[in-house]
Predict the structure of L-fucose/L-arabinose isomerase family protein.
Amino acid sequence: MRNLPQVKMGIIAVSRDCFPMALSESRRKAVVAAYNGEIYECPTVVESEIHMQQALAEVKAAGCNSLVVYLGNFGPETAETLLAKYFDGPVMYVAAAEETGSNLIQGRGDAYCGMLNASYNLKLRNLKAYIPEYPVGTAQEVADMIAEFVPIARAIIGLNNLKVISFGPRPQDFLACNAPIKQLYNLGIEIEENSELDLFEAFNKHANDPRIPDVVKDMEAELGEGNLKPEILPKLAQYELTLLDWIEAHKGSREYVAIAGKCWPAFQTQFGFVPCYVNSRLTAMGIPVSCEVDIYGAVSEFIGTVISEDAVTLLDINNSVPADMYEEEIKGKFEYTLKDTFMGFHCGNTPSKKLSFCAMKYQMIMARALPEEVTQGTLEGDIAPGNITFFRLQSTSDAKLRAYIAEGEVLPVATRSFGAIGVFAIPEMGRFYRHVLIEKNYPHHGAVAFGNFGKTLYEVFKYIGVEVDEIGYNQPKGVRYPTENPFHN
């Protein structure tokens, strides 16, 4: 996949001047030896601000874009937290556990205590850093913490270098995905908003592009027997090249891009197709494309992509599962109630590799009001069963960041419907739907990552500044939501 950051991790050990520096140094070496991955071991152990400057110069020269500050002993409060202030990238703080009861005099580091002061000093300086759930460990445990930090760091690096390119205003009567973009600027994300007319002009300039036949061949190979609309592929290939060329010409100083695209109501009649399949192909490349100019949806997709290093999709939290279908296909086979289930749907933007089967078709909903021939271009199929994480980053109307995360699965149940669609099951979904999605005014679009990534997403959302009480999740049975009626029938 393209469009993904590469993490170059560095580790700096710190030492308080009244503790043996050799203790931090030897413990750092043990962590590096235990770590199963590439990491730059900074030779300078930080005892003072001068050491801090020297160590930062060393990790910068090594090309590090993320950093582990390792308290091998108690650690110097000022110097160790200034590392986070002056390092340009995500930072994690971890501490060494004591190794043996037979060496608790000269071999005792007190990093358990030092971590408290480090966290206090980070707060005093209003500095962001990742601190694991239990940040004190042996060399192997700290190495495992670093491995968990990598996808978090990748997401932060990506967001700090992201541009969202949008096309067109949101469709009429489609206020749900409209949210203030101020918070995205606060996160360091750039936004480029364009007219549909700009995109249409660029598309027309790509007519007869000599690269079109090769893209068509690639589409044919991907679709296989599902290539039911071969006549539309040249136009779709022309559109794909238009978007890819636009990205290269417009990403400017940014390294990574996501797109918030327009798809109705005038897109079909003017372009002569719907963009769903092309959106799915770019998403599979690592360039998320949201529908209906959903800017926060595009950012959510990007976060899921860089965390999972895999394609994501954006779906409507769409319709309930009919009771008869639940009785026939789900009850007694899976441990979910009817209210735990729902159907996630979008017209055809889910990458083919995430579908059990796929076919190129027309957009049935749009074709109810338009000629069928201008609605071709959707990729239909049931979403492949397996674990998923449904999530979204969103701004409120008064520009406050909030997010939700819910882990669940796509069930191996035929949907009997159209579009890119799946039967989803999330424990206690009914209560989550009412007391998070509805109560917190989330729009109907949710990003879907294929796998369980809730733990990492939660830490990313915290790191970028979402208050913990604004991160919603599906409460287990018996744990009441603040807005939930305590009086049950």
Notes: The first strand starts at residue 9 and ends at 14.
